[in-house]
């Protein structure tokens, strides 16, 4: 059914979704690192990031 169709727009849309997901995962990991630093270093970590 798709053999005679241009599937590039579908591929591009899927790539865009995958990229957005990867960006969200990276941001989540960064937030986890910040959280861990705040837990480990407390007020010192807050003062350094301000």
TrEMBL record:
Record-linked InterPro entries: DarP, DarP_sf
GO biological process terms on file: ribosome biogenesis
Signal peptide positions (record): none
GO molecular function: rRNA binding
Coiled coil spans: none
SUPFAM superfamilies: PSPTO4464-like
Keyword rRNA-binding: yes
Gene Ontology CC terms, in alphabetical order: cytosol
Keyword Manganese: no
Keywords, ordered alphabetically: Cytoplasm, Ribosome biogenesis, RNA-binding, rRNA-binding
PANTHER family: UPF0307 PROTEIN YJGA
Protein name: Alpha helix protein
Species in which this protein is naturally found: Klebsiella pneumoniae
């Amino acid at each position: 059914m798709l053999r005679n169709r241009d599937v590039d727009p579908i591929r591009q849309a899927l790539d865009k979704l995958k990229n957005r997901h990867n960006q969200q995962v990276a941001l989540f990991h960064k937030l986890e690192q910040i959280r861990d630093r705040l837990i480990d270093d407390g007020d010192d970590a807050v003062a350094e990031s301000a």
